[in-house]
Amino acid sequence: MDIRHISPDLAVSGQIAAADVAELKAKGFRSVVCNRPDGEGGDQPSSEEIARAAEAQGLEFRYLPVVSGKVSDADAAAFGEALRELPGPVFAYCRSGMRSSTLWALSQAGTKPMTEILAATQAAGYDMHGVARRIANGGKTPTDTGDASFDVVIVGAGAAGIAVASSLRARNAGLNIALIDPADIHYYQPGWTMVGGGVFAPADTAKTMGSLIPRGVHWIKAAVAAFEPDNNAVILDGCRVVKYDRLIVCPGLKLNWDGVAGLEETLGRNGVTSNYRYDLAPYTWQLVQDMKAGRAIFTQPPMPIKCAGAPQKALYLSGDHWARAGVLKDIDIQFNNAGGVLFGVKDYVPALEKYIEKYGATLNFFHNLVAIDGPAKKATFEVKKPDAEPTTVEMEFDMIHVVPPQVAPDFIRVSPLADAAGWVDVDQATLRHKTYDNVWSLGDVMNAPNAKTAAAARMQAPVVAENVAADIAGRAPVAQYNGYGSCPLTVERGKIVLAEFGYGGTLLPSFPKFVIDGTKPTRAAWFLKERMLPPIYWRAMLRGKEWMAKPEPLSVAAE
């Protein structure tokens, strides 16, 4: 038997024999459900045979036959009733396990999130996307999908989504474009490091979403529940369905705060903060100002994360304040990094190491934060050094700046668009999906091996816009993305190491060395970060004005 667990209370498999029931009893099952009609296959034991074997083992048995490919709403309701009535755990079977899994998925709709249902069945090897609309509709067959249809649908109205919508409009003002996002507020997230360093005010990093949606673009203020790329459809919460000719996916990533035990309960108090959240960045600055002595820990989780330099930017700006305040000598700064290097592009490491030395920070590589006790002010790290057994260490703190683990959003990870790791699977040059020709992705959610930064999205948006416009015109892709990303490393107030690089760590500076030498801390780079980049973001990038972001022709790669 190939027993596959769907939930703690249910496992499924294909057809079983009467002789298998004793093994089910031995494995702890207390009930058996048959979802395969008698006589469906020539070598199939009857339900009565299985029922007698179950009775002999002291197991409950229920016969709920379902014709293959015809799972009705009543069937799903009966299966849900059986799960409630029968002693568990329950074992259900059909020819392959698919019908039993489908019945479970539909019976759980309305009580469990769709992403949880899809993830559970996917993990067991059963794809439920064929009934996604029914799951979204509470397990019942929709009578009226109320479809809307657009030339281009963009999922996500963050930096990538609004930028690519504006770039598309600039190329073809006649396109019927929909932008799907439930948020009321749009944030300039690169500014949160500066908020945590006392440079920017929080309000400077937020604007209403409605004020930024490009003119002529339809804003659908809703959350996405699932994708049906074979049907060119996006399913929204509530089972509304949006159809598209072309789809662009850029909802960003998910900050997995509950990936660290005890973290959510203590965020924003007990000295626990993070610049990765709008409401917490001011608390970072408050803690830095109030701290006169003690231990400050700065953490960095495993890659990928958005803006890989942000964890240490918080350290540098904090260290700079403590140095200016004359208390640095009394503060023990620890940088606990789950990775094995200070920064992924070696050309920038020497300059950064000098600041680590300047602030007297201790580098602890291969240290990943797994638990935190805020009231006790203790953090637990799993230490996984190469060629060594994993260990755990506990460290006390007075202040801790936490960067949460980061994953693709749930509705992406369980979708047909995702790769094995859960990210949208694209060609790294054209940003077109590897399986679905009318789907593109950009920003933090796709799987190209680039840094996840707003600067990367600024370069990706024109590439996707060019290639979508070319596809609409019946042409092959014309633009390529070179992996560009930028990380302005705020090493002290007034100076920045401007890291700019592409695929493979290739340096891609935007300015001549005599203007800004990115491998060294410069005041010019600080001026760029503090004064120029915010207006470039709000007034250029989000409005389709592609300043210093001209797409590179795809032919360059082939030559």
What does this structure look like?
The strands form eight sheets. Strands 6, 7, 10, 11, 12, 13 and 24 form a seven-stranded mixed beta sheet that branches. With 559 residues, the protein is an alpha/beta fold. It is globular, with a radius of gyration of 27 Å. Helix content is 28%, strand content 23%. Strand 6, helix 7 (159-171) and strand 7 form a beta-alpha-beta unit. The chain has 16 helices and 29 strands. The chain has three domains: 4-136, Protein tyrosine phosphatase superfamily (Protein-Tyrosine Phosphatase, Chain A, Alpha-Beta Complex), CATH 3.90.190; 149-253 and 408-558, 3-Layer(bba) Sandwich (FAD/NAD(P)-binding domain), CATH 3.50.50.60; 257-405, FAD/NAD(P)-binding domain. Pfam families: BLH_phosphatase, Pyr_redox_2. InterPro entries: BLH_phosphatase-like, FAD/NAD-bd_sf, FAD/NAD-binding_dom, Prot-tyrosine_phosphatase-like, Sulphide_quinone_reductase. GO terms for molecular function: FAD binding; hydrolase activity; quinone binding; sulfide:quinone oxidoreductase activity; transferase activity. Keywords: FAD, Flavoprotein, Oxidoreductase, Quinone, Transferase, Transit peptide. It comes from Psychromarinibacter sediminicola.
